[in-house]
Every structure is written in structure tokens, then in C-alpha cells.
Amino acid sequence: MTFVQVIDYETRRFDEMNALIDRWAEQSSGRRTATHTMIGQDREARNHYVDMVEFASYEEAMKNSHLPETDRMFQEMVALCEGMPKFMNLDVVRDEHLNKQLANRVFEEAAMVGNMSVLDECFATNYINHDASRAESTVVGRDAMKSDMETWRAAFDMTFEPTAQLAEGDMVTTVWNWTGVHKGSFMGVAPTGKTYYLSGSTTFRCLEGEIIEGWWHYNPGALQQQMGGTGSPYGT
């Protein structure tokens, strides 16, 4: 279970605090178990800060606490604070990244199940699509995405298996393996009933609960080689 330690403190010497955290990160490299740190400053009380440090588990956090570098940092941190810092230890019981959910709906509900109405819910009307495999590598409009997906779905019963997913800021990148059972004409090749494979990645940029831009990276030549064809998915 993911574990988060919250440190609540006041300081008038944040520049020194920041430098202290940088030194700890450098000195504990290769030994620390923290996976993510974040510092927030109170907008109503500018000397009030909250640090959030994430660990894979409580046990990993305890390993981190026992590092000599961590003990030294704590002593120096106390000296920089106005009063004693307050600690809160949290087991994470719910962790959702809403932009990840948005991206996953595209793969799970639209691409694999065929619910095209999901695209209306997930993509902005002026969505910008970038696809290096196309002759026209940048296309504007949600309807173009629908058309592309319908072309692929008419040709394949397909699945996307995510192998990694990273969300940062307004961007979500999904690395995937694609499997398609060939059921309809594609790239000039009549249905074979065979199963084909691709791997690639998709990065979506999200704004206000919609996907506004996307980048698709994969090698259509690998699919062409498996199918024995020379065309492209878009007739170019």
C-alpha cells in the first residue's frame, strides 16, 4: 500500500530549506526509498509550508527514516523552522489520476469495445491529432479521430494492453502493446483471420476534462510486414 508522510512547518528561511532538501537527495542517492516529493506553500500564510513525501509502502518509508542522511536532514530542518514540524503518516486508500482515467476510456471503451460516443465525451471538438504514420501528420477535429478509429475497428477485433503509463501535469503517456484479429479489408489485404501485433505509445494533453491534443507513435511498417501488404492504413 502506498504510504505518504506529510510534514507541516513554518520557516522564514525557505531558500535554505530548499537547498537542504537538494543536498539530502544528492547524498542519499542509491539508498533513499522515497519515490515522489512535493512542497506546497500556503497562499494565506507565506511562511507556512507542507511537504508530502511518497513511498511504495510504510516499510519502505521506515528504511528511508533510518538512513543517516535522513537523520541529519531532520536535525538541520528543525533548526530552520519556527517551532517543531508536525508529521502526519498516511496510508493511501484511494489514488486516482483523472487524466489517466480519461486516456484509458479511449483505449478500453472506444478502441476495444467500440463505443464511439465515448470519443465525444473524451475529446475536444478541436482536438489536434499528430500521427507520424500518416501522410498528413497533423489533423484537427474530433471527427477525424472517430474516422480513424472506425477504420481500424472495421478491420480488426483489437486490444490494447498498457505496459506503462505516466501522468505529469496535463500530459498522459501510455505505452501499449496492440493485438488485432484481422476481420476486414485493411491496407489492401482481404481479411485473413490471423492475429497481428504492434507496440507503440500515445501521449494525450488534457484540459478541463477533455483531451485536446494527441501524439501516436508506432511503426505501421511492422504491421505491413506481418500482413504482407505494401499499402498504409490511410491509403497513402
TrEMBL record:
Residue spans crossing the bilayer: none
Name of the protein in its database record: Ester cyclase
InterPro entries named among the record's database cross-references: Cyclase_SnoaL-like, NTF2-like_dom_sf
Cross-referenced Pfam families: SnoaL (PF07366)
SUPFAM superfamilies hit by this protein: NTF2-like (SSF54427)
Gene3D superfamilies, per database record: 3.10.450.50
Organism taxonomic ancestry: Bacteria, Bacillati, Actinomycetota, Actinomycetes, Kitasatosporales
